Records
---
Amino acid sequence: MDWFFDPSLTLSERKARMHRWLLLASRVGDDTQVPRFNPAGQNAIATGQEWPEPRPTRNDSRVSTSLAQPSISSSISTPEYQKAACVDLPLETSLACRACRSGAQDDECRFRGFRLISPCLSGAIAAVSFPEPPSTTHSLSEDCAPLPHSEKIHVVAKLTAVAQLLLPALKPEIELFEHPGLLYQRPSAGFRTTCDKCLTSIFSGAWLCTCCGFESCLDCYSAVIRLPSDGGGDLSNACASDSHHFRPLARLTRQELISESNRMSAWLESFSGVPQDSSHVPCGDSQSMRNVEKNVITVTASDMTSERFASIWSHGAPFLVRDLASDPRLWSPQYFMDAFGPDACTVEDCQTGNMEDVTVSAFFKQFSKPSRKASLKLKDWPPTSAFEEVFPELYRDFARTVPAPEYVLRTGIFNLAAHFPELGVPPDLGPKMYNALASMPGSDTRGSTRLHSDIADAVNVMKYSSTADGAVWTIFAAEDSETLSTFLRTHVEGSQTDSTIDPIDGQQHYLTSSMLTTLREKTGLTWWEIVQRTNEAVFIPAGCPHQVLNRSHCVKIAIDFVSPQNIARCHHLTARFRAQNVGEKWKEDVLQLKTMAWHAWVALSH
């Protein structure tokens, strides 16, 4: 589709070609060439210049922990990239990065594979420096496979959503190059870079302390250089406030950013008036849909087409899909006891939050006990490993039966997360299992899942329920989050009013029936109430506060995804979490939305 970005075309000519392209996309077969993400060539950035080795993790067995032998022709060797952590080198403490000074096990050396060092013949480090920006620029990969003709029209909506998010974000990234002393670092495999101040992932530009490795995002830099000069007594932060130590750092070139910024501007300018989707499913008035237990959209699995999903999802409302297929041999408590019984797991008491280590068999045996003292749940299972690796049989059944797989699955063409390269650290969006006993009865129940909102879209599928009662979901509109938070702070006992963490984001509360009655009386808010049963899926848009109460013992599986319809909402949530992290660090940004959007743009527009 390079013709679209031809500078010789006028605006009207580009619009005319776009209309013709969309018309062809809806009529012709797979021979029409439209760009698509290519998993085999997913690293979007190539280079014409030699790069330093990617910064590895401490557990990378390929990393040499010793320096290369210095040249014997000189007392000081030619500068070379630092191949080991600062703590493993003969460095003065003042030359070590903040991670190596602190000895934190959950942090990585900031300078390995990035800083240049000059060792003496004696082995001591004589000098340190940083590489200059490359003299040649990147070229963006254009090795993209064609889309099936049925999916081509959706590329337009996807590119438009990404361009609307990224275009304003690229302006400060480009302006960073106006500062002198710019450093350049290639993105490192297996390493996610976050701001040391707000824990938000860093897309390209940042400010780096060349003394200790403290890295600040562009938004936090002005606040970082005002930190107390003594670092509050923390050696790892001791030099963070000396602004002369900070230099601008970029991971993409200026030419690259400007080129893509111009392409995004041209795309958005030419796109006005071009239809994005001709399908429409009447969903009713959005305000009336928010009445309790009324107008919950329900679709059978056999009727869930891609067009139907897109139309419903554009309203920003949750909905229910019924009559999903499932392998009857799988998902029962007995299946898990037989297949994974001796395995260790950690369960949580839904009422108290206390954790306990048990075996899988011991947990699932309680599904058949007539009486019990607690409501336990085994959530986010498996906690670290990929679901498809630990439970391949279960994953195949899930992937085969989940509604709207083109949006939901990691490989889905409409899932923006599908374009995240293996070069970085893709966000762990699941799937994960959520297994829980029925909630304890009584007016003081804390439910199975407390009130919270997710930074990405999600779908939750119930695979097993001990009775027909299933689970009850209470879901609020994303735009009602602020009103709901204010109510929790002022009317609900136990809210930490002095905390910078939002009571919804902190998952502090479960709203009982009496609390919900008070909420409606005080605020006028309404919400959706969805009863979920076996082989039913609940779709929850990003940012919608929700809570769950299991009426029976349940086995569920959930997966997060990033849809073009809700990318702006995901961005808003990232900013909200960042603001809270500035005051009280509590949640790292693992979604990396700007990086995800960048790779989606590159994969689809080239």
Note: Residues 152-175 form the longest helix (24 residues).
---
Amino acid sequence: MKKSIFIVLIGLSILAIGCGGGGGEQAGTTTQKAKPQAQAQVKQAALPKGDPVRGKELYTQSCSACHGPDAKGIPGLGKDLTTSQFAMNLSDAELLDYIKKGRSTDDPLNTTGVAMPPKGGNPSLTDKDIMDIIAYIRTLEHKG
């Protein structure tokens, strides 16, 4: 009986060591790094494609009061969206999230001292509406 228990314990020990992978931290790190990237790809793929024509109409209604009719900004209110490195460097998913949340006056990244209200102050905007606005803004960006 003791011999059987001993053999089972040895077998379980070998199995545990074999399943451990020997890499310990390195294997876990690779998995952790891959997850956010995969999640970002899934999130980006799940976004509806924006319609820039509809986006222009929605932009005029919800964004132009601060960012101007041509998206070149209004001093002391909204930034120029045609040259905004901030907007250009964000993915559509990140820009959607930013527009939905807005930016308070006490945010360290707020350079105008004026708050950007969530959804540009239009709570009725849906994610699809905002994606249309983003599609329109992307047509105006001057990269360079």
Note: The domain at 52-141 is CATH 1.10.760.10 (Cytochrome Bc1 Complex; Chain D, domain 2).
